[in-house]
Amino acid sequence: MSSDTEEDYGRDEKQPIDGSDANRPRVYFRRWIMVGLFCMYSMSNAYQWIHLNIIANVILRYYNASLPGDSYQKQMAIDWLSMIYMLAYIPLIFPATWLLDRKGLRVVGLAGTLLNCLGAWLKCASVSPDRFGVLMFAQTICAIAQIFILGIPARLAAVWFGPNEVSTATAIGVFGNQVGVAIGFLVPPEIVPNSASLDQIGHDLSMMFYGTAGVTSALFLLVVFVFKKKPPVPPSKAQAMAVEQAAGEKYGKSLLRLVKNKGFILLTVTYGINTGSYYAISTLLNPIVLHYFPDQELNAGRIGLTIVLAGVLGSILAGIWLDKTRTYKGTTIGIYLLSMLGMVAFTFLTKYVNQIWVLFVVGGILGFFMTGYLPVGFEFAAELTYPESEGTSSGLLNASAQFFGIILTIGMGLLVNKVSPLEANITVSAALLLGTILTGLIKSDLRRQAAEKRVCGKDYV
Predict the structure, then answer these.
(1) Residue 99 and residue 360: Cα distance in Å, rounded?
(2) Mind listing the pLDDT tens digit for each residue in 215-268?
(3) Distance of CA 230 to CAs 104, 413, 415, Å?
(4) DSSP three-state, residue 11
(5) Running DSSP on this structure, what letter comes out for residue 69?
(6) Hey, which residues does 353 pair with through a beta bridge?
(7) SS3 205
(8) Which of 55, 125, 227, 254 sits most deeply, having the most CB atoms within 10 A of its CB?
C-alpha cells in the first residue's frame, strides 16, 4: 500500500495542484469511498447487534432447552445477546483506541471486519436447540468487533474531510450504524417467523445466518483491498496541527487530559444516558410491544425500523445544521430536550391509547431526536477536547453509552417482567430529564473552531 500515488486518491478538481502548494490542506474524492465502505461494514455489525433480540420470543422458544433457570432468567439470557455488545465495549475500548491512535484507520478497520465476519460464520454452527452457548460465543465475537467500529466516524471525518464537511461526514458514518439497526429490526421477523415447528425455525435461522456470513465476508475483502489509513495531505490546517501533535503524544497523557476536562466529563455522562436509553429501548422493544399488542412480532420490528429511519433523517439534518451554524451546545440541548419529551409521549401514549399506529408515530418522533443526537454528541466532544484524538474522545463517549445501556436494559427488563412496561418507560424518561439538565451545565468551549480561526485568520468561514 505504500506505493500508492496521490493520484490514486482522486484529488477534487477545486484543490490546488501546483508544486508550491504541496503541503496545503486538500480533500480527495476517495474520502467518499472511505466513508461509504465504513458505513457498509458498520451496518453489518449493527445488524448483528439487534437481529436476535427483535425476535426474542422466537429465540426463547427455539433455544429453551439450553437456557438457564426460570422464565425471568431465560429472558435475561436472551437480553444478554444484546447487552454483550455493551459489556465487551467497556474494558476493551482503551486498547482499541490506543490501536486506532497508533496504527490508524486501516488496521482498526481490518480488525473490526475480520472479527465481524468470524462471528457471523460461528452463528451458522449454533443452529440447534442445545447450542445457545455457541450462539452467545459467536455474538461475543461480533461484540468485540464493534469496539473497532463505533468510535470511527468522528476520526474518519477528521482525517479525510475538510472543516466544513466534518459534521456531515460524521453523521454519514453514524448513518451506516443506524441503517444496520433498521435492517436488524425489519428483516429477522420476515425471515424467522414464530413458526409452530422448531425444525422450521432452525431452517429459517440457518438461512438468516448464512446470508449474514456471506455479506460480512465480502465486506472484509473490500476493506483488505480498498480501505486506506489516511490521505497524502491532511484536509484542514487544524487536522494537520492535530496530526503533528499526536505524532509524539503519549496515549496515557491524552486520556488524563480528557478526564480532567469538566465539560467533556459532563458530556460523557449525558451522552451515555441518552444513547444508553436508546440501547435499552431497542433491546426490549419486542417484549414491550407484545405486552400491549400480543402476536405483533412483525409490527414490533417495523416500529423499530420506524425509530431508526427517523433517526437516520435526524442524524443527517443535525450534521448539516452543525456544519452550517456551528451551534454545538444549543443544538445538543435542543435535541436532548426533545428526546426526553418524545420518550414521555412514547411512555403514556403506548399505555393509554390502544392503537398500534400510535406507536409508529411516537416511535418515529422518539427516534428522530434520540438517534439524531449521536453525531451531535461526537462532534461536540471533538470541539471540547481538541487537539486530542477523536478516536479517544468518541471511544469514551461510547463506553459511557454501553455502561448506561447495561444499567438501563437490566433495570427496564426487571420492571417489564416484574411490574409493567409503564414503570420501565417512566424510569427512562426520568433519566433523560436528568441528562437534559446536566447538558445545560456544559460550557461551550469550541477549541477546534478556535484553532481553525487562528491558523486561517480572516479566510475562515
Answers:
(1) 41
(2) 999 999 999 998 777 775 667 666 556 555 554 556 677 778 888 888 889 999
(3) 8, 43, 47
(4) strand
(5) S
(6) none
(7) helix
(8) 55
